[in-house]
């Protein structure tokens, strides 16, 4: 390529030399003779010089022509050499091109083969996907059918459990009544035999009567040997010893609660329950009271308990579960905690307005210590929907705040001196309403109150309603009046009312005298009227 460029430059120079023109001489003027001679001489000299110049020029032209010829020869040789090189390079490129074409053809064949394999694999994949979809759909249908079967089985299981619980209660009730009847029949038979044999002149001693009655009962039990056990953590079994008066009384009370729709107006039952239900009868009494006030729906609890509520509710329940203690048993096993979580989840899913509020965990825990897991859920519903006023556990808690103000107002009427003193301990805080609100929030499930006293308050609360809680709040203040009057500020008042021994079993009889006698008259209409006033003032 460089040689070709040089040759091109030389050809261009030759064309420039050929195209150059000699300069035109200037026009001549008229001259004298001497001037003519001088001009002749000069012209001859010029001609000689011009001839010599022309000769030199011609010689130069000859030399340039010769050089041009040699350059052209050289350029022709170089161009022929360049052509040879180009032909050689072209041949090499042709060979490379043919080689590349062969390679491209081979790669095309490979691509074609891979494409055919890819199409085959795509076809196989489509077939596999269709088979997989068909298999997945079959599995889904099987899973759905299994779920439906499980739901049906769960519903049937719940129905059987419910039926079993009802039958157990009926059997226990019948067994208790049978023992009472056997006891009475045996006693009458013993008296009849005594009068018949001894003419009524001799009375059996109390010990002999009891031994005779026990023998009748043992014989009767041998004929009807059957035991009933409750599978829950609490035991609902028929007593093995001879039934006493308490057994007969509570069996009749439970039967009356179940069958008599006017039981709230029964003063005898009210007075009996205010003294506290015996622990062995408490589960059955609580369930009988609950069944009369709320409707149970089969299968509702299982669906709600297995559904996760809102994330905020789940986190709050998870935080409160480890802090919830069992009041009747020291054992707080993972199984019990899981039951408590399910009950709280079910309630949060059922009652969206409340969801979850601190205090419900204690109520649910207390319910689980006496009732079945599903019954504990309905127990929470009974407390929040029926027994307590509205908005006790809502977001603004207007109901419980109104009851706190209500207790402060009633205390000012029932114990004006104490109320005025407590107001003077803190001018910026209604300490009566504050403390009462804390008690009402957990319904006296508090470490400062002995659990046996709490349970007796709950017995009356389930039977009579929210008015019992108001009575007991006022009674606690009045019972501790002497201690509270010695307090000079609110911190001392709180120390008295939050002590671990605020209410003990030995104090129950005296405090309940304040609750049910000293603060009378205390009608339900009066409480409702004051509550409406407090709600308006909020």
TrEMBL record:
GO molecular function per UniProt: GTPase activator activity; small GTPase binding
Compositional bias per record (Low complexity), positions renumbered to this chain: 29-52
Record domain Rab-GAP TBC: where: 276-465
Region (Disordered): 19-82
Pfam families in the cross-refs: RabGAP-TBC (PF00566)
Coiled-coil residues: 136-177
SMART domains: TBC
Keywords recorded for this protein, A-Z: Coiled coil
Entry-linked PANTHER family: RAB GTPASE-ACTIVATING PROTEIN 1-LIKE (PTHR47219), TBC1 DOMAIN FAMILY MEMBER 2B (PTHR47219:SF20)
Protein known as: Rab-GAP TBC domain-containing protein
């Amino acid at each position: 390529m460089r040689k070709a460029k040089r040759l091109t430059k030389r050809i261009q120079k030759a064309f420039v030399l050929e195209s150059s023109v000699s300069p035109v001489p200037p026009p001549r003027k008229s001259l004298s003779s001497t001037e003519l001679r001088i001009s002749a001489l000069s012209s001859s000299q010029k001609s000689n010089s011009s001839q010599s110049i022309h000769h030199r020029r011609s010689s130069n032209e000859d030399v340039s022509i010769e050089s041009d010829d040699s350059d052209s020869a050289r350029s022709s040789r170089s161009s022929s050499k360049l052509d040879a090189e180009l032909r050689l390079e072209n041949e090499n490129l042709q060979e490379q091109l043919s080689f590349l074409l062969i390679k491209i053809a081979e790669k095309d064949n490979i691509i074609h083969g891979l494409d055919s394999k890819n199409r085959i694999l795509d076809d196989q994949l489509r077939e596999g996907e269709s088979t997989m979809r068909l298999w997945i759909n079959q599995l889904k249908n099987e899973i759905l059918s299994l779920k439906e079967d499980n739901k049906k089985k769960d519903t049937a299981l719940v129905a059987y459990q419910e039926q079993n619980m009802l039958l157990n209660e009926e059997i226990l009730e019948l067994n208790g009544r049978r023992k009472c009847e056997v006891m009475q029949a045996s006693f009458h038979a013993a008296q009849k035999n005594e009068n018949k044999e001894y003419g009524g002149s001799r009375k059996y001693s109390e010990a002999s009567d009891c031994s005779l009655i026990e023998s009748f009962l043992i014989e009767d039990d041998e004929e009807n040997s059957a035991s009933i056990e409750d599978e829950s953590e609490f035991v609902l079994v028929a007593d093995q010893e001879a039934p006493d008066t308490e057994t007969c009384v509570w069996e009749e009370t439970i039967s009356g609660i179940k069958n008599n729709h006017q039981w709230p107006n029964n003063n005898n039952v009210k007075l009996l329950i205010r003294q506290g239900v015996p622990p062995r009868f408490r589960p059955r009494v609580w369930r009988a009271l609950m069944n009369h006030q709320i409707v149970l729906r089969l299968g509702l609890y299982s669906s709600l308990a297995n559904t996760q509520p809102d994330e905020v509710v789940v986190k709050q329940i998870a935080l409160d579960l480890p802090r919830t203690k069992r009041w009747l048993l020291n054992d707080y096993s993972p199984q019990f905690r899981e039951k408590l979580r399910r009950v709280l989840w079910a309630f949060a899913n059922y009652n969206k307005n409340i969801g979850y509020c601190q205090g419900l965990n204690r109520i649910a825990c207390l319910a689980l210590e006496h009732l079945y897991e599903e019954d504990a859920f309905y127990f929470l519903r009974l407390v929040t929907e029926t027994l307590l006023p509205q908005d006790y556990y809502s977001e603004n808690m207007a109901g419980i705040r109104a009851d706190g103000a209500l207790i402060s107002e009633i205390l000012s009427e029932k114990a004006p001196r104490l109320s005025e003193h407590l107001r003077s301990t803190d001018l910026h805080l209604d300490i009566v309403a504050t403390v009462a609100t804390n008690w009402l929030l957990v319904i006296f499930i508090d470490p400062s109150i002995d659990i046996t006293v709490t349970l007796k308050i709950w017995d009356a609360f389930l039977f009579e309603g929210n008015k019992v809680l108001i009575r007991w709040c006022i009674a606690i203040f009045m019972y501790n009046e002497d201690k509270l009057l010695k307090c000079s500020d609110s911190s001392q008042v709180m120390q008295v009312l939050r002590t671990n021994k605020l209410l003990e079993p030995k104090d129950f009889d005296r405090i309940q005298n304040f609750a049910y006698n000293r603060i009378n008259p205390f009608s339900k209409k009066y409480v409702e009227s004051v509550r409406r006033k407090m709600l308006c003032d909020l």
